[in-house]
Amino acid sequence: MNNFSENDWIRITSKRKDMPKEVRIDRAGNVYIDGELYDPATSKYKNLSVSVEKHEKVATGEETEKMLESQKKAAKGETVIITDYQDPTKTESTTVKF
């Protein structure tokens, strides 16, 4: 198992003997279990299932900027919709209560 690299996105380590010592997901969405690319057909952990959704949405800080701007304008207790995104398979909305 390697140290955390620049390409890693999430790294989970465990000390339990019945679980993988390390589960790593890179920025491309590839899953590595104990340093090897995860393949559900050949995994020695039969009770483990890993699913990673890949999206092209990249956080650029625009949402955070909108939150800060809304905070200046909103009254105490007011709920403000920051983003409202819909496509055929999902709906995503970010709201903040000030």
Largest sheet: 4 strands, antiparallel
Q: Number of helix segments?
A: 1
| Shape summary | elongated
First-residue to last-residue Cα separation: 44 Å
**Rg (C-alpha, Å):** 19 Å
Helix content: 10-25%
Number of domains: 2
The strand order across the widest sheet is: 1-2-3-4
Task: Give the helices and strands as they follow along the chain.
Answer: EEEEHEE
The averaged pLDDT comes out at 83
The low-pLDDT segments are none
Structural class by sheet pairing and helices? mainly beta
Strand content: 25-35%
Q: What's the total count of β strands?
A: 6
What structural keywords apply?
single chain, mainly beta, 2 domains, four-stranded antiparallel beta sheet, two-stranded antiparallel ribbon
Blueprint of the fold:
Blueprint lengths: L7 E6 L8 E5 L4 E3 L2 E2 L24 H12 L5 E8 L4 E7 L1
Description of the molecule:
With 98 residues, this protein is mainly beta. The chain has 2 domains: 53 residues, no CATH class; 36 residues, no CATH class. The chain has 1 helix and 6 strands. The strands form 2 sheets. Strands 1-2-3-4 form a 4-stranded antiparallel sheet, with no helix packed on it. A hairpin with a 2-residue loop joins strand 3 and strand 4. The longest helix has 12 residues. The N and C termini lie far apart (44 Å). The mean pLDDT is 83.
